Amino acid sequence: MSKSEQLFAEAQRVIPGGVNSPVRAFRAVGGTPLFIRRAEGAYLFDADEKRYIDYVQSWGPMVLGHAHPEVIEAVVEQAQSGLSFGAPTELETELAEELCRLWPNMDLVRFVNSGTEATMSAIRLARGFTGRDKIVKFEGCYHGHSDSLLVKAGSGALTMGVPSSPGVPAALADHTITLSYNDAEGVRSCFEALGDQIACIIVEPVAGNMNCIPPVPGFLEALREVCDQHGALLILDEVMTGFRVSLTGAQGFYGIEADITTLGKVIGGGMPVGAFGGKREIMEHIAPLGPVYQAGTLSGNPVAMVAGLETLRLVEEPSFYEPLVARTNHLVEGILAAGKAAGIPITANKAGTMFGFFFTEEPQVTNYQQVIACNNQRFNQFFHGMLEEGIYLAPASYEAGFMSSAHSDEDIEATIAAAERVFARLD
Length: 427
Ligand code: PMP
Known about the structure:
Aspartate Aminotransferase, domain 1, Aspartate Aminotransferase, domain 2, 2 domains, four-stranded mixed β-sheet, binds 4'-deoxy-4'-aminopyridoxal-5'-phosphate
C-alpha cells in the first residue's frame, strides 16, 4: 500500500470524501489522490517522496512555481510580525495600488479570502448598484460555489455530475439565466427579452473550468455592447485568467473593458486571497461608503498580502511572460504532434500560460457541448499513464492546465517524451 493510499483511507474517516475540495478526490479518473508532502519549483513530491512535474500548480496561483525563495522569505519575515490584526495595514494599500495601476478601469479594489467570495460580492454589488435581480452566466463557467452561481456550473460541479447543486433555493436559481458560451446571438436575444431586469453578466473571459476555451472573436465585444445598451454591468471573472493570460489578464489581452473585475489565485501567490474591483462610481456602493454590505475577519491578511506583493513584483519584471508563453506553446505543440503521430484524435486550446487538450475528432473546440462530447475514458487513461510517468495533470478533463516560470525546457521535453510513450499504450 502506498503512503497516499494509507493517508487517503485515514482522511476519509474524518473528512467528506477525504478531501476539502471535490476534484482532489480523483473521483472522475479513479484511483487514489496523491497526498503531497512538499513542492519546489515545477515539482510536487508525494508522501512517498515520488517526484512529479506539476501542471496543476495549485489550480493556477503558482505562476512562479512552488515555494519561490523570494516569496517564502517575504512570508516568513511577515509572519514574525504577526499573522492577523483585524485592522488596516499599509500592505493592503500597496497591493491595491499595484492592482489599480495595472488593471484598466480599476479605481477601487476590495480584498477577500477566495475567488468564491470575490464573485459572490461582485454580484451583490451589481444587484445593489442596478436595483435588478437577474444575472447572466454561461454554461460550464465556474465562478465559485455561492448560491446564485452554482447553476449549470463547470469545474468540480460538472465533474461530479451536479452542475446545478441541490441546496440552492429555486427562488434564487430562478434569477440566474444561463446561456451558451461563445454564442453572441443567444446573449442578444436574451437581452432583447429581459434586458431591463438584468443586473450583470458574469463571464470567464477565457473559460478555464470546462477545460480551456478562449472566446471566439466578437463574443466578449458583444457582451460589452449589450451591457451598455441595457444598463447592465459586465463582470469579468479573472480569478483564473488574471496574471495568467497576460499581465493584465484576458481583458488586457483582448482589449475588453470590465465594470467589475474579480481576481484571486496569482494575486495571493498561493495564500488565500481574492479581490473585486472596478469603476469608482460602482465600488462606492460598498460598505462603509455605501449600503451594499461585505466584510471579512481575515480579509487583507498581512501574510497573504506580502505573498501577493512579492509574486506581482516578480511577474512584472520585463520579459516574464514571453518565455512562459513560448514554453506553453512548445508543450502544447509537442503533445499534439505526439498524439497525432500515434493516431490519437486530439486537439488543444491555449491562452497565455493556460492550456487544455481534448480527445475528439473535432478540429477545434469552442463550446460546452463539444467539451462534454469528448472521450473521457481516453482522458482518464492518458491521465493515469502520465501520472505513472511522473507527470501530474489535473485529475479531471474539465480543467485547464497551467505553466509556471519554474518549468525548464528539459521538463517540457520530458513531458512530451512521456506523452509519446503513453499515447503508444492507449486503446
Ligand atoms: N472564478 C473562477 C474563474 C475560478 O476558476 C474559480 C476557482 N477555480 C473561482 C472563481 C473560485 O475561486 P475559489 O476556489 O478561490 O473560491
